[in-house]
């Protein structure tokens, strides 16, 4: 928790304006998630980002994806599901030539949050990369199966899918992978 204030100060000093995303944002949100001290991250994440700091050409898309992934995790933890769904959607619709591990994990959480909010899988927006729409479903089939069973409103089908894939859900779905 000691690092949260240090990273918050670093963000304030390096940002061109409060609407700019820096690489430090991802580190701060990750630290807040690990320490379960969400307030500093939520204060930062409630401001919609309008630009990305150039950082002398050293900014990496990984920081962008991790900021939105970890942000979605925090919003899910505090039960702000609409905002969580938005953060996961931004993560999965980021232009890409390949599906990254971060995008895949965000999509799995996107499915779960969509089930909570809407009772069905949220549609992947049409502006998502073709690569993402083509390859993300096969890579997250276990979650699609859960969503398909959930939509049937049959508790037995949901229980059967959960029982069948319990190890996968525990290993990959409900434990937060450390991606940073």
Automatic annotation (TrEMBL):
Domain COP9 signalosome complex subunit 3 N-terminal helical repeats: 1-132
Transmembrane parts of this sequence: none
GO cellular component, one term: COP9 signalosome
Top-level taxon of the source organism: Eukaryota
InterPro entries per the UniProt record, alphabetical: COP9_N, CSN3
Pfam short name (any one): COP9_hel_rpt
Keywords of the record: Cytoplasm
GO biological process: ubiquitin-dependent protein catabolic process
Presence of keyword Transferase: no
PANTHER family the record matches: 26S PROTEASOME NON-ATPASE REGULATORY SUBUNIT 3/COP9 SIGNALOSOME COMPLEX SUBUNIT 3 (PTHR10758), COP9 SIGNALOSOME COMPLEX SUBUNIT 3 (PTHR10758:SF1)
Protein known as: COP9 signalosome complex subunit 3
Gene transcribed to yield this protein: COPS3_1
